[in-house]
Amino acid sequence: MDLLPSILIAEDDERTCILLQSMLESLGYPIVGTAGDGMEAVEKTLSLKPGAVLLDIGMPVLDGLEAARRILDQMLVPIVVLTGMSDDATLEAARALGVQAFLLKPLASKEQLRAAIVIATTICDRQRADAERIDTLSTSLESTRVKTMPRALGSYGLTRRETEVLHLLAEGKANAEIGVELGLSPRTVEKHVEHILDKLGVKSRTAATRLVADAGRRKR
After folding, report:
1. Were both Cys, which of 29, 68, 148, 170 would link to 212 (CB 3.0–4.6 Å)?
2. What CATH architecture applies to the domain 7-133?
3. What range(s) does the Response regulatory domain occupy (predicted)?
4. pLDDT digits 0-9 by tens, 84-118
C-alpha cells in the first residue's frame, strides 16, 4: 500500500485549521505543520518539504496566489488551494501558476478533501515527468548543437553556451527567440553575442553567421 503524502496546512482561520487537521487525521494523512500566513506557508513548505500543501487563498502577509507562486518557483509540490471564492479569474490565475487542485470552503466532506489531494498529487507527478522529459530533450539538443558546429570554429575558444548561441544565430534567430529556447534573459543573450563577436574577431552578427557558413563548407 502506498504511503499517504505528508500535509502542510496553510490556513489563517483557527477553526478551519482545526477542522482540516481532524479530517486529515481521520483519513490517515500525516501532518507536518501548519502556517498562519502566506509568508510562513512559503518558508515552511521550502524547509519541511511536505508531500502536499493545503493553501488558503485569503491569507494575510502574502495572499495564497503569491505564496503559491513563490513556492512553485522553488519546488514542484502538490498544492490544493482553499477558497471561498468561485470566480473564474481567481481559479484561472491559480491554474496559470501551476496549482493542481481547488476546494471551495466550507468543505462538504472529508472525502472531498481526499479527492482533491489525490488529484493534486497525480497532476504533480505528471508535471514532474514532463519536466524530466523536457530536461532530457534540452540536454540532447544542446549536445547536438555542439557536435554539429563546424570543427574549424573550435580554435576560437567559444564556451559551450556561446557555441549554442552561435548555432542559433546562424539559424537567423533573434536574441529574444534565443533566450526563450535556451532559458536565458535577452540581456544575457546580448552579452553572449558580444563575447562571440569578440572571440571570432568580427563586428556583426551577419559576419559571425557568414563565418559559420564558410566553416561548414570547408568541413564538407
Report:
1. 170
2. 3-Layer(aba) Sandwich (3.40)
3. 6-120
4. 877 778 888 888 888 999 998 888 889 999 999 99
